[in-house]
Amino acid sequence: MILQQILRLSSLFHSAVATHVRRNIGLSAIVFNKAKELDPVQKLFLDNIKEYNTKSKQAGRPGDARPDFQKDLNESLARLQRAYGEGDLSKFPEFKFEEPKFEETPK
């Protein structure tokens, strides 16, 4: 009887310790990943994104665009305006929905 209680307590203790260790290993892996330096491929990818962003801001257009990008863009916008009507095609359209008017029917 005492042996069964000891075995039962040891299995409970083992499961509690296993859960605790598993959680701590998971949290420590996250901490170690943030603490260490990025691997070279990730670093290169992030550097390229930052470089592209600075080029885009300086040029006022997408970073790797040709010099005649603005001319092509204006031609495309003019063609779309002729096909689909007037309006500013550089902005997302604003939709206005009116509430339907319901009439009560006499009973």
From TrEMBL:
UniProt-recorded Gene Ontology molecular function terms: proton transmembrane transporter activity
Keywords recorded for this protein, A-Z: CF(0), Hydrogen ion transport, Ion transport, Membrane, Mitochondrion, Mitochondrion inner membrane, Transport
GO biological process: proton motive force-driven ATP synthesis
Subcellular location: Mitochondrion; Mitochondrion inner membrane
GO cellular component labels: mitochondrial inner membrane; proton-transporting ATP synthase complex
Coiled-coil regions listed: none
SUPFAM superfamilies given in the database record: Mitochondrial ATP synthase coupling factor 6 (SSF111357)
The keyword RNA-binding is annotated on this UniProt entry: no
Domain of life, per lineage: Eukaryota
Membership in a protein family: Belongs to the eukaryotic ATPase subunit F6 family.
UniProt subunit comment: Component of the ATP synthase complex composed at least of ATP5F1A/subunit alpha, ATP5F1B/subunit beta, ATP5MC1/subunit c (homooctomer), MT-ATP6/subunit a, MT-ATP8/subunit 8, ATP5ME/subunit e, ATP5MF/subunit f, ATP5MG/subunit g, ATP5MK/subunit k, ATP5MJ/subunit j, ATP5F1C/subunit gamma, ATP5F1D/subunit delta, ATP5F1E/subunit epsilon, ATP5PF/subunit F6, ATP5PB/subunit b, ATP5PD/subunit d, ATP5PO/subunit OSCP.
Function comment: Mitochondrial membrane ATP synthase (F(1)F(0) ATP synthase or Complex V) produces ATP from ADP in the presence of a proton gradient across the membrane which is generated by electron transport complexes of the respiratory chain.
Descriptive protein name: ATP synthase-coupling factor 6, mitochondrial
